[in-house]
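Repro:
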Amino acid sequence: RDLVRSRGLGDVYKRQIYECNDAIQAVIHIHNTPIWQGMLKDNLTHTAQDIPYGTIEMAQAVKQTVAAASQGYLAMAGHADGVITYGETFEVAMNICRQLYEQYAPNDHH
């Protein structure tokens, strides 16, 4: 985490997540249409549709959505296909990502 540098918008959102809970050590940001659509359809954790990517409002919404959780996921409704998973380790964040793939995109081999 100490190596996180602000090189782009994605880093801003990741930094917001890291700041939610000291236990969070890994953040994964993917783009996958079936997962994103499925998460929104099932009303899983997500930011509001009217908050676009690249805004301070999105960074604040990501932080509010994660709150104090040490692991989890969220879809960015205002960022087409954007999904974030996070956890105490890379393996935890990756396992959450794999579970989302298995649930929503089992035949997607990207």
